[in-house]
Amino acid sequence: IEAAVKAAREAFPGWSSRSPQERSRVLNQVADLLEQSLEEFAQAESKDQGKTLALARTMDIPRSVQNFRFFASSILHHTSECTQMDHLGCMHYTVRTPVGVAGLISPWNLPLYLLTWKIAPAMAAGNTVIAKPSELTSVTAWMLCKLLNKAGVPPGVVNIVFGAGPRVGEALVSHPEVPLISFTGSQPTAERITQLSAPYCKKLSLELGGKNPAIVFEDANLDECVPATVRSSFANQGEICLCTSRIFVQKSIYSEFLKRFVEATREWKVGIPSDPLASMGALISKAHLEKVRSYVKKALAEGAQIRCGEGVDKLSLPARNQAGYFMLPTVITDIKDESCCMTEEIFGPVTCVVPFDSEEEVIERANSVKYGLAATVWSGNVGRVHRVAKKLQAGLVWTNSWLIRELNLPFGGMKSSGIGREGAKDSYDFFTEIKTITIKH
Ligand code: NAD
């Protein structure tokens, strides 16, 4: 980290004084090279993380390419403000300057996607970067280093440091010459980062976990809602911060929804990541698999029912893969809102389905957890959709859909799901300092 800080500080004057157009050209060059190596990166990401190759090919790597292209373009379009006070003979305007050396820390679930979602805006705004990917998924970050060199990123502008959180992450967070930390990961780690960075009053962006509700009203179109909610619960093995893990269904359609949801979940094939028919691959690690399974055990001990998946259905895998960290998508019912399965982030292929009576009741129950990242609302009633979306304590609410992103708009969570937002304007604001200048004329 010391060596990286030195390199990043030395590179800062040169990189920050380049025009946005020049920086944009370099970012576009990175995007082009990454796109040309898409298959190679997708194969590596899938092997490293356990996700299906299909998902790495269609989501992780294309989105990483898009991250560079998006910020290469958006950096060209920022303007500043100017106001006048003629009666005092002066005008005021704002300027933005890059912050300096940006510390970026990312998790293992969408390794290259989330790393580049930080590197691209930080570089575009003129900062130099020290990035620490998760120690569990280092391969595509390593491959990216080579590609950044090839794209002509000057030495010292992006420094990727590999290593474990308590050692490398803490050295970065507590380094006095790194004034900004952008972190995506778990809430307990965010607490530690907040403590370590507090003495320096660092700029902090924290993108954390969720306990995301899906609310299904009786007028929902179940033909669309059921498959979308299976996907929102189990995509990437349920290892996406935006995954649904509490499904509230209005009582009048509860039985029908549950029947169809369990049937559709059973159709989700768990397979080796290269299997083109697999919807889910392997979980990240043995420790994580055991943690996810322990939640199912706790639910059973509390008297809940497991409708499909873990302990109920049989996992069918080739003999040589049976020791892998695979788990069936699991649906739990008859569980209380206070249960840890309904309040804690499991971050695996486990979701709970519970009934509700009224709109007011479900809003209160959906909001009753400490997290506030994302929610989905399923209803054909346009008034209800607007009303409920506004009252939910979540930074992102999808209605009759899931995971449709508009990169310009703010992304992030409320409550324990984080502080700060990411997006075109929000990331630019975060990765720059603003100053107001008053001119007396
Ligand atoms: P984690 O908090 O264990 O680790 C995240 C990163 O922080 C890793 O690089 C890790 O090495 C580093 N780290 C760990 N301890 C550290 C310390 N003491 N100081 C500095 N850095 C440290 O999280 P994870 O298990 O890798 O990721 C899963 C979590 O990430 C889930 O909670 C998930 O919801 C969250 N997540 C949130 C978003 C979002 O955008 N809100 C996106 C993806 C994942």
Describe the structure.
- By secondary structure, the protein is an alpha/beta fold.
- It has 2 domains: 233 residues, Aldehyde Dehydrogenase, Chain A, domain 1 (3-Layer(aba) Sandwich), CATH 3.40.605.10; 188 residues, Aldehyde Dehydrogenase, Chain A, domain 2 (3-Layer(aba) Sandwich), CATH 3.40.309.
- Helices cover 42% and strands 20% of the residues.
- The strands form 4 sheets. It has a 7-stranded mixed β-sheet with strand order 10-11-12-9-8-14-15, with helices on both faces. A 6-stranded mixed β-sheet has the order 5-4-3-6-7-17, with helices on both faces.
- Helix 2 runs antiparallel to helix 4 and helix 4 packs parallel to helix 5.
- The longest helix has 22 residues.
- The protein is globular and about 70 Å long.
- The model has no long low-confidence stretch (mean pLDDT 98).
- The structure holds nicotinamide-adenine-dinucleotide.
- Keywords: Cytoplasm, NAD, Oxidoreductase.
What order do the strands of the largest sheet run in, or round the barrel if closed?
10-11-12-9-8-14-15
Terminal Cα span = 47 Å
The CATH class of the largest domain, by name, is Alpha Beta
Poorly predicted sequence stretches spanning 5 or more consecutive residues: none
Strand segment count: 18
Percent helix: 40-55%
Q: Indicate the proportion of strand residues.
A: 15-25%
Catalytic activity: 2-aminomuconate 6-semialdehyde + NAD(+) + H2O = (2Z,4E)-2-aminomuconate + NADH + 2 H(+)
Keywords: Cytoplasm, NAD, Oxidoreductase
Subcellular location: Cytoplasm
Active site: 207
